[in-house]
Specification:
179 residues; single chain; Protein Transport Mog1p, Chain A; seven-stranded antiparallel beta sheet
Length: 179
């Protein structure tokens, strides 16, 4: 993982309020339904809050001089991960700067998380890759602005078989919360 030191430093983002699920267009597949029982993932140093289907276990997994790394998982009693998300967050001077830095950011965060790089443009600020295999994996990079600051967020959500819809709901909620 990257160095634990922040140089010159990233201003700690102020988390936004959680926007409850509403019927909406999805980035991919399933979304949380209105009134869904979701656990709000808060307090992990992100400028957004997102929903998780079961009580999550969160961790700060490292920092670099430019990027914050976080992990959220649901584990079985034996400690194996059923559903997991790894998140990389980088501030940018402007939204245009985020878009210009995206390729470099993608190389860095996907190498750190050993994730497939998001390759399919979904809109002017979002890229996605779906990977089928022993695990179902969704990778997304998104440029967004929150509380006057522009950000790049890289997310990989991985799920065991049978949890694909939960992975889609988590990714879609992060996408929706970073509008």
């Amino acid at each position: 993982m990257p160095s634990p030191a922040l140089k010159p430093g990233i201003v700690k983002p102020k988390p936004g309020a959680y926007i409850p699920p509403v019927p909406a267009v999805s980035l991919i597949g399933a979304t949380y339904e209105r009134g869904a029982d979701v656990q709000e993932v808060t307090g992990i140093g992100l400028p957004f809050v997102f929903g998780w289907p079961r009580p999550p276990k969160t961790a700060a997994v490292g920092l670099s001089s430019t990027t914050v790394y976080r992990r959220v998982v649901t584990e079985r009693n034996n400690g194996s991960v059923v559903l997991g998300a790894q998140i990389a967050l980088r501030p940018c001077a402007t939204l245009a700067a985020c878009l210009a830095e995206r390729a470099t950011f993608d190389q860095e965060w996907t190498a750190t998380f050993k994730a497939p790089a998001p390759a399919t443009a979904k809109d002017g600020r979002t890229w996605l890759t779906v990977q089928q295999g022993t695990q179902y994996r969704l990778s997304m990079t998104r440029a967004f602005t929150a509380d006057g600051q522009s950000w790049l967020v890289g997310v990989v959500v991985a799920a065991v078989r049978g949890e694909e819809l939960a992975a889609q709901r988590v990714l879609n909620d992060i996408w929706r919360q970073t509008q």
